[in-house]
Amino acid sequence: MSDGNGRVTITIDGKEITVPRGTLVVRAAEELGIEMPRFCDHPLLDPIGACRQCYVEVEGQRKLFTACTTEAVDGWALKTQNTSEAARAAQVANLEFLLINHPLDCPVCDRGGECPLQDQTLQFGPGESRFAEVKRTYEKPIALSALVALDRERCVLCARCTRFCDQISGDRFIGLHYRGARQQVAISAGEDFASPFSGNTIQICPVGALTARTYRFVARPFDLHSVRTVCAHCSAGCNMRADLRSGEVVRHLAACNLDVNDEWMCDKGRFAFRWVDSPDRLDKPMIREDDLKPASFPEIFARIAEWRTGGKVGFITGGRLTDEDYYALSKLARKAFRTNDIDHRRQFGGGEAERSAALGGGVTYRGVESAKVIAVVGLDAEQEVPILHLRIRKAARKNAKVFVVHPRRTRLDDLAEHLLCKPGEEARAMRAHAALASALRDAGRDAIVIAGPRLADGGADAVLALANETGARFAWVTRRANEHGALRAGVRPDLLPGGRRVSDTAERAEVEAIWGALPEEPGRNAREILEAAASGKIGLLYLVGVDPLRDFPDAALAKKALENVAHTVVQDTHSDVLENHADAMLPAATFVEKEGHFTDWEGRSQRVATTRGPAGVALPDWEIFAALARAMGEDLGFSSLEALREEMDRLLAAREAPSPAPLEPSAPAAPDGLALFSYPLLVDEGRLSEGASELKAALEQEAFVEINDEDAAALGLADGDRATVRTDAGEAILPVRVTSGIAKGAVFVPFNQPGLAANALLSGAFSASVTVERAGGDA
User: What contacts 602, CB < 8 A, 6 or more positions away?
Assistant: First the structure.
């Protein structure tokens, strides 16, 4: 009987269970450990009952029911194939029907050995085939894109792939075409499956109909060594499985974590895996004696100690080290080099918004999914944190009201209200939009403001102030995989571990209690470090997992810094990074070669697992930092990852709950005239996309300039024209895209696409005043 709390009690195969009203029978069976065959069912997709495999018998009912579409009814007694001959016979007959035209090509099928159809035919099928006629065939494979191949004769029409596109990604490129016996998965003529989530359809396909062109005929399941780890591409923190064959990474698969990525993964995380095995891996220490020559770690450490004498040192790092690496680097800079000149950022001005991330903001994926109002400000979620994009879409399907405040229209445009504004005007646009401010106030703690990396130079704090005023929760979301880990570890010139301020005596003393005396004055940020290197104010530039020439939004400043600084140390995974500028190079292990943790945008620290040994004598970054400190006569206090983690946890444990600081609601104004802004698209020319030729063929775009249709008309530009884009830093000639999906007065150029490194147009920020004119003539 119902317990009066919205729960019902049923029995399945004689086993009683009480479940919430609305629970599908198949889910109740799973809780009891009862297995039943099915192909179309997926817990994250709406039920459809397409494959008819999960038949159950209900006592007192005349027909069989599909367990994946039937909700539990209080008092029901059900029988699965284990106890019902009718259910078993129906399942056997249906499997036999599915196999009539299915090719028995398991030995060459990429799904062979991990195929639900194989497994269920063996466990639940008839045992032999009565079908001797010629099977239906199709042309194969059909290239849906450079990543996805379709073998139509294997398809069992479960509609998992099409439902994923309709319900999860919103990228409706494929569908079920035709009817009856001719029905098949297909794509419209002339189209490509140009979705950044296309690989998920491959993974959830229960047969070998959809296969990855990167993995076709590469390996069999018994060839693979598999390890669960965390993706290193962005701050989404996707759990994944890395598959290696003979030590080489050959495949990434999404791993299930319903608190983070559900069971999904973007195509960059899935297909951009070859960079770890590229031929230019740095596998031994190198020192410059005319040319770079192999050396030992102690030799190079001794040289670094010499170079440091009498000169200041600046540390710049990227966003993809582990939590432990960042902690060791933060301590190395302060203890061994006595400097707060340390930074991981490419843009600045997050202020209290960034500090909130270091303290632990409290917003989670689950919180986003259950929110009533979501304001996404200064973030192109699909391109920058794709799985967060999917979670926002999931919230919208549950009737959340979504607003996007951004200079460009994003791929949330089918379900969100967009407030287009010039770069730098995001906070002002939020305040001026009465419906948004009212929705935030009405929802209170059920509202979430997600602030992204476009909010530099005070904009993030202005948005945080508005969130505080309305009672909404606030999340600071950065792009790169572990920027939150860097913030928590104090890899910022004015912050110590746990968001403690260098300038605050009491907060600094909490760190000094473990680390000892520390420098008291805040240091230089990354831009100021480069400026100091360019002007000779620091003598040693230490670069860890970063290439300023490629990553920093001022190519001229980065070049000048590297040319003028007395000594440059590069600690990285690949030898081609800055090899022409390095005086010493230290080989670091990639994320597949070391243990540690990544902290995602939520502040969730997740384990990164070792999948194989390092290349050559490469070491995890934290080990290099600890050994360098010892060589300089300063012990960091840990010789194992466990000891480092224990010390780090002590410093971070007490800093989980931030208290909102009073903030001024003002925000910077956008420049007069046209304002250029830039950010990296999902697939670009970055280091971690190297070797991913199929991914680039499917999703990478040539450099372009995007401009509002009214601005284009005023300048005499049409879609497809070529235009000269000119800033104080430089100029470039680019093809024009004219659209109403960009704010009037805003001009977009992607940061690092083939044909242009946009940092040649920038002067230390990701936006600038710009002029645009038709190439070869006046505007």
Answer: 237, 361, 363, 364, 365, 475
Q: Regarding beta strands 77-79 and 495-496, do their DSSP bridges make them parallel or antiparallel, or are they unpaired?
A: unpaired
Integer angstrom CA distances of residue 570 from 221, 300, 467, 565, 574: 39, 11, 41, 13, 10
- The reply to whether 658 falls in a domain is no
Characterize the bridge pairing of strands 286-289 and 401-406: unpaired
**Cα–Cα distance, 385 to 215 (Å, whole number):** 25
Q: How far, in Å, CA of 610 to CA of 595, rounded? A: 5
The length of the chain is 779
Burial 526-565 (b: 16+ CB within 10 A, else e): bbbbbbbbbeebbbbbbbbbbbbbbbbbbbebbbbbbeeb
Q: State the pLDDT at residue 458.
A: 75
The CATH number of the domain where 261 resides is what? Answer: 3.30.70.20
Indicate if 325 and 428 belong to the same structural domain.
no
Q: Note whether 606 and 689 are same-domain residues.
A: no
For 159-208, write each residue's pLDDT tens digit. 999 999 999 999 988 988 888 878 889 887 778 899 999 999 999 999 99
DSSP 465-476: HHHHHHT-EEEE
3-state secondary structure of 348: coil
Q: Which residue, among 46, 70, 45, 75, has the nearest Cα to 59 in the 3D structure? A: 75
Instruction: Give the span between the Cα atoms of 24 and 66, in whole angstroms.
Output: 10
Contact 207, 99 (CB under 8 A): no
- Residue 141: asked if its preceding bond is cis (omega within 30°), the reply is yes
d(CA 684, CA 681): 6
399 and 325 share one domain? no
- DSSP 3-state of 448: strand
DSSP string of 121-145, one letter each residue: HHHHS-SS----SPPP-----EESS
Burial of 5 (C-beta count, 10 Å sphere; 0-12/13-18/19+): exposed
pTM: 0.95
Structure tokens at 237: 């923190």
Residues 63 and 32 in one domain: yes
List alpha helices for 226-377, DSSP H. Answer: 267-271, 297-308, 323-335, 352-359, 365-370
Question: How far is 407 from 426, CA to CA, in rounded Å?
Answer: 8
Q: How far is CA 528 from CA 348, 459, 533, 538, in A?
A: 11, 20, 8, 11
Cβ burial, residue 577 (10 Å; 0-12/13-18/19+):
buried
| Distance, first Cα to last Cα, the chain | 77
Are the C-beta atoms of residues 425 and 447 closer than 8 Å to each other?
Answer: no
> CA neighbours within 13 Å on the CB side: how many for 172?
8
> Given pLDDT bands bounded at 50, 70 and 90, which one contains residue 660?
very low
CATH of the domain at 66: 3.10.20.740
d(Cα 161, Cα 154) in Å, to the nearest integer?
14
Order of strands across the sheet that contains 64-66 = 15-20, 7-12, 77-79, 55-58, 64-66
The alpha helices in 424-545, defined as continuous H runs, are: 426-432, 434-443, 459-470, 483-489, 505-515, 526-534
Tokens linked to 47: 């039920």
Q: Are residues 463 and 499 in the same domain?
A: no
Whether 588 is in a domain gets the answer yes
As a whole number of angstroms, the distance between CA 546 and CA 150 comes to 39
User: pLDDT, tens digit, for every residue of 227-246?
Assistant: 999 999 999 999 999 999 99
Average pLDDT, the chain: 93
Amino acid at 621: D
Identify the weakest region by mean pLDDT among 44-48, 351-355, 380-384, 583-587: 351-355
